[in-house]
Amino acid sequence: MNQNSKQPNPDVIIIGAGIIGLSIAYHILKLDPQCSIIVLEKEKLLGLGSTGTCTGGIRYQFTSPLLRNLSLQSRDFFLNFETVFDVPCWYRERGYLMLASQESIWSELKNTAEQAKIEGIPVNLFSQADLEKNFPYLQQGRYLGGTLGKWDAYADPYAVLVALYAWVRRRGVTVSFEQEVTKIITQGDSIQGVETTKGTICSPKVVNASGPFAAGLAATAGIKLPVQPFRRQVYVCTNPKDVPPAAPLIVDLASGFYLHQEASGKTILLGGTDNDTRPGMKETIDKSLAEDFFLAAMEAIPSALNIKWLRTYTGIREQTGDFHPILGEVPELRGFFAASGLSGHGFMHAPAIGRILADQILKGSSAEVDSVLLFSKRFSRGSLSEALVF
Ligand SMILES: Cc1cc2nc3c(=O)[nH]c(=O)nc-3n(C[C@H](O)[C@H](O)[C@H](O)COP(=O)(O)OP(=O)(O)OC[C@H]3O[C@@H](n4cnc5c(N)ncnc54)[C@H](O)[C@@H]3O)c2cc1C
């Protein structure tokens, strides 16, 4: 190990100052205020990773009970956010309206609503007639039914990121920008630290919270992390005239199309039909997708025909094959922790993931996590096999 440019050695190194890395730092300090932590971030500024492009949806309607549970565990964080951090994150419970145009999806939606209700999650069912009465801007006759999760919400990811950053900084965490981790250093089956563009840092505990870069980083220690990055394209548009600014987030489950009202009420974010693009880190906008996309938009909401397309941006998010995260200590490498594969849920689940990882790092286990999400259990048994609809 090159010790020439040695930096102070903290109790925990966290790689990545995205929502996950900072949530882990926050939850570690809540458990142990004396723990010394350094967060290493390759970029110059906060929010240049996935978190900066995240649209800020929070939902409880998942077919997977494990994902519903992560949402439930995160709920108090968002409800108490303003009291704890003394800044707003523009949290607003507008609901997600999940729409089914096929019998199989409608049946899955009803099933999920039933399960969610048993867990105390409020979800309302809408028949075709109810939908047409309550949401007249939807394509008449297209949907067999829909569900509205009353707790499903929006919040501002950047506001949460900055609040976490300020909170951990005030409590002594070093967040070092423009310091890229280039290699995970190991000795036998234990972690030793990391090599960075500014020298070597040693620590018995290193957390990989590098988002879409996680698999590449793990590979420098010979660890295979089964996550892949995918580009997602978001269309910023003017509001369709008949969709009120307080409308819920609308998702057409057959096409994947979603409509998300921005906090200002003046613009909307549209997206969701590019789920079958190939994995990769390319962030360039693919204009060839636009025609099919706007056709899908008009199939859901006919007045989308007259909206103004203002701009498009892309973001990268990382996924596992089953859309569930990989959490906890890597079995082959003591002291190396994964917080990866957050898919399209990393913002809403960041509070739960932060707490679970803090427990794992400080206590060696967490009562709050189903063991199937843990690195070791998950991959020794094979990936989750349930067919996820959403
Ligand atoms: C378009 C889009 C919309 C989304 N919408 C939602 C949504 O509505 N709700 C939701 O919950 N989730 C959503 N997501 C997913 C969510 O954004 C992510 O799951 C979440 O931001 C992941 O956070 P992270 O901290 O793991 O990753 P990031 O925010 O990417 O943070 C990782 C950080 O690690 C840094 N890094 C990487 N490699 C290194 C290295 N070698 N050394 C040092 N630093 C490094 C990166 O620069 C980055 O800052 C969306 C994602 C996209 C792309």
TrEMBL record:
Signal peptide interval: none
Top-level enzyme category: oxidoreductase
Pfam family, one: DAO
Ranges for domain FAD dependent oxidoreductase: 11-359
Keywords: Membrane, Oxidoreductase, Transmembrane, Transmembrane helix
A GO MF label: 4-methylaminobutyrate oxidase (demethylating) activity
EC identifiers of the protein: 1.5.3.19
Ranges annotated as spanning the membrane: 12-29
GO cellular component, one term: cytoplasm
SUPFAM superfamilies: FAD/NAD(P)-binding domain
Alphabetical list of PANTHER family matching this protein: FAD-DEPENDENT OXIDOREDUCTASE DOMAIN-CONTAINING PROTEIN 1 (PTHR13847:SF287), SARCOSINE DEHYDROGENASE-RELATED (PTHR13847)
Protein name: 4-methylaminobutanoate oxidase (Formaldehyde-forming)
